[in-house]
Amino acid sequence: MSDLYQRLSDAIASRSATVGVIGLGYVGLPLALAFARAGFRVLGFDLDAGKVATLNRGETYLLDFPDEQVAEQVRSQRLSATTDSDRLTEVDAVIICVPTPLTDKGQPDLGFVEETARSIQTKLAPGQLVVLESTTYPGTTEEVVRPLLEAGGLRAGRDFFLAYSPEREDPGSASFRLESIPKVVGGVDSLSTRLAEALYAAVVSSTVAVSSTRVAEASKLTENIFRAVNIALVNELKIIFDSLGVDVWEVLDAAATKPFGFMRFDPGPGWGGHCIPIDPFYLAWKAREAGTEARFIELAGVINTQMPRYVLSKLEAALATGGGELRGSRVLLIGIAYKRNVADPRESPAFAFLDLLIRAGALPAYHDPFLPAAPRMRNWPELEVLESQPLTPETLQSHDAVVIVTDHDSIDYDLIAEHARLVIDARGRYRTRSENIVPA
Ligand SMILES: NC(=O)c1ccc[n+]([C@@H]2O[C@H](COP(=O)([O-])OP(=O)(O)OC[C@H]3O[C@@H](n4cnc5c(N)ncnc54)[C@H](O)[C@@H]3O)[C@@H](O)[C@H]2O)c1
């Protein structure tokens, strides 16, 4: 094994190793680009022929990445993409970045990870390094991926190297780029950990080695559960303080002046994105399997998924104050992406809110500069696809209420305050109170 270790270690140090990235989405594409920029030859794999063709033309499909960044690496022939898994024979290290969603029953769906592990196994060669990056429960690398990879007779820790390293990303943030975020790495043995560290050290400023793949898997879930639970806590505080006539945002401004022992989270209309509403339930499932309970996670789920209903109740009450009702009201949502300044609608609470509005007989529309057309509604497939409305005085005046769901920075909030008849603010965007603005 030490020969195999030395060979891959040298190839990483000299940048002669070829790096494979499987799954060229929000996680895989930035990673592939980072390795290409660091001087490696990178081969990206995806089932989506459209994404592969786009990349090979030197273009991108992710808003955060200008075409030029991809074009430069494609032109230099450091980056190319393929749908052909037979080409896994060309790579020395391969990183798995495929989706880990939940099933309809809210349980981990490892189908993509399993399928990928099976296709790697058929091409696995002695001395290769395999790293799982997809977010998942502790035990996945050892209990699910390892047996699939070993099915052909090669053994992890003897013939090939295997590690887990979670992705950390702050979508929409200019402060944290992949390169500046420390990367946790845990291998099935010490040589696997060292090789995975050496590989990532080429693209990130620091790596954090842990004793096992399980610790690395659990660290990622801990980070996201911390967020999920604190979002639920501050959402519950919002409801409590509102019933006491206390402004939660003013409370948070004050609490956040404490220089230690407090970390600010802001309330909103729920939770969203591909990670926070999903990943915690990977641990809840694993906890149940181990005969224990994940009560904080389950409670956070209950509170956060009820928040769109709370915003609706505030809207309904505010309309009633003016003698109106929800049925037949024209309601303009501001922002339908799951988070400020991103174009990602996945699991956005805006859709749960839209669903509630439609069920109540209201007539919804939206404005979101990042999403010109809304994805088709799961519960209302017959509904015409909604398109973003221009944010003009006429649009604002022609709606009975405007609801701030996602407060992108580029939106003109003064224009909204000036022309909307009623504003329901679920994000605390307006700090000075006026008659037509209702915090929610
Ligand atoms: N998006 C984020 O901000 C983020 C952050 C941290 C961790 N993660 C985790 O990273 C993983 C990937 O997430 P993502 O957001 O990049 O997903 P994504 O849906 O954007 O991309 C996944 C890609 O994998 C491809 N794919 C699926 N099965 C494949 C297969 N068998 N072979 C080749 N390609 C395949 C899909 O076509 C898709 O292009 C998930 O586990 C997620 O939880 C995501």
Q: How would you sum up this structure, described in words?
A:
With 440 residues, the chain is an alpha/beta fold. The protein folds into two domains: 2-211, NAD(P)-binding Rossmann-like Domain (Rossmann fold), CATH 3.40.50; 248-439, 3-Layer(aba) Sandwich (Rossmann fold), CATH 3.40.50. Helix content is 40%, strand content 12%. The protein has helices at 2-13, 28-37, 49-56, 67-75, 111-123, 140-149, 190-201, 213-243, 248-255, 279-289, 295-321, 349-359, 393-397, 413-419, and strands at residues 18-22, 41-45, 79-82, 93-96, 129-132, 161-164, 183-187, 207-209, 330-334, 363-367, 401-404, 423-425, 437-439. The strands form two sheets. An eight-stranded mixed sheet has the order 3-2-1-4-5-6-7-8, with helices on both faces. Helix 12 (349-359) links the parallel strand 9 and strand 10 (363-367). 44% of the residues are buried. The site of nicotinamide-adenine-dinucleotide (NAD) has 26 residues, from helix 5.
Structural class: alpha/beta
Low-confidence spans: none
Q: CATH H-level name of the largest domain... which superfamily? A: NAD(P)-binding Rossmann-like Domain
CATH architecture annotation of the largest domain: 3-Layer(aba) Sandwich
Helical coverage, percent range: 25-40%
Question: How are the strands of the biggest sheet laid out side by side?
Answer: 3-2-1-4-5-6-7-8
Q: How many helices does DSSP assign?
A: 14
Bound molecules: nicotinamide-adenine-dinucleotide
Mean pLDDT: 95
The dominant shape is: elongated
Strand runs, count: 13
Beta content: 5-15%
At the first level of CATH, the class of the largest domain is: Alpha Beta
Q: State the distance separating the first and last CA atoms.
A: 60 Å
Number of domains: 2
CATH fold group of the largest domain:
Rossmann fold
Order of helices and strands: HEHEHHEEHEHEEHEHHHHEHEHEHEE
